[in-house]
């Protein structure tokens, strides 16, 4: 619901101030140059953090998959070791 409200606000602002740009352009026109600069930097940081979080999620998913495969390999190798009888050298009882 919040996203819908923000998008509606941006649409009304774009209709009132017809210029190409993002929220930083509208903040600069409405409030001042420092407001436009601040809004632009905040939006840039939000995008940077979102991509960083996506990369971390991908890394965690990959690490989780590696851990599962390693666990399956460990269980299978122990089961194989238990299933084979030990090899005895000749001459020893």
UniProtKB/TrEMBL annotation:
The lineage of its organism: Bacteria, Bacillati, Actinomycetota, Actinomycetes, Micrococcales. Keywords: Membrane, Transmembrane, Transmembrane helix. It comes from Cellulomonas aerilata. GO terms for cellular component: membrane. Pfam families: AA_permease. Signal peptide: none annotated. The keyword Membrane applies. This is Amino acid permease/ SLC12A domain-containing protein. The keyword Nucleus does not apply. It is found in: Membrane.
């Amino acid at each position: 619901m919040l996203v819908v409200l923000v998008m509606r606000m941006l649409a009304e602002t774009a209709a009132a101030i017809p210029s190409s740009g993002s929220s930083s352009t509208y903040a600069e026109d409405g409030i001042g140059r420092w407001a436009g600069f601040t809004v632009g930097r905040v939006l840039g940081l939000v995008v940077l953090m979102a991509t960083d979080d996506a990369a971390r999620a991908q890394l965690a998913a990959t690490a989780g998959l590696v851990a599962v495969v390693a666990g399956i390999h460990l269980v299978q190798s122990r089961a194989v070791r238990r299933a084979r009888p030990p090899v005895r050298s000749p001459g020893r009882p």
